[in-house]
């Protein structure tokens, strides 16, 4: 990523569990990529998904989730993180643009302060209504 930035690429960063990839994820990631020239996805590792989402999660392990994300044409990089939030990763990467879903307010986006302090931008993307991993799991039950 540092090489990309030194080459003038505009690096976009987002993060999440991406446990069961669905239309909402695809739409969100595609829109995130359109904000810059490179998209890096911070992916919660298995233990952090379990802490955040409960004992029955993740459905797909971190290797499967990372590989699926990496296979998407608009994802340029995937990196795992083990903390409950991506703050350390954002501090290390310092992306040009930090993106989260519009269900977040700027005041509660982890790492926004770091990105803004380094001249970057923080943006939100509207989510596709009715699509979430939790909804999919409920339908399967």
TrEMBL record:
Residues 13-106 form the Cytidyltransferase-like domain. It is an enzyme of class 2 (transferase). It catalyses: D-glycero-beta-D-manno-heptose 1-phosphate + ATP + H(+) = ADP-D-glycero-beta-D-manno-heptose + diphosphate. Its EC number is 2.7.7.70. GO terms for molecular function: ATP binding; nucleotidyltransferase activity; phosphotransferase activity, alcohol group as acceptor. Keywords: ATP-binding, Carbohydrate metabolism, Nucleotide-binding, Nucleotidyltransferase, Transferase. InterPro entries: Archaeal_FAD_synthase, Cyt_trans-like, RfaE_dom_II, Rossmann-like_a/b/a_fold. It comes from the Bacteria. Gene3D superfamilies: HUPs. This is D-glycero-beta-D-manno-heptose 1-phosphate adenylyltransferase. It comes from Roseivirga echinicomitans. The lineage of its organism: Bacteria, Pseudomonadati, Bacteroidota, Cytophagia, Cytophagales.
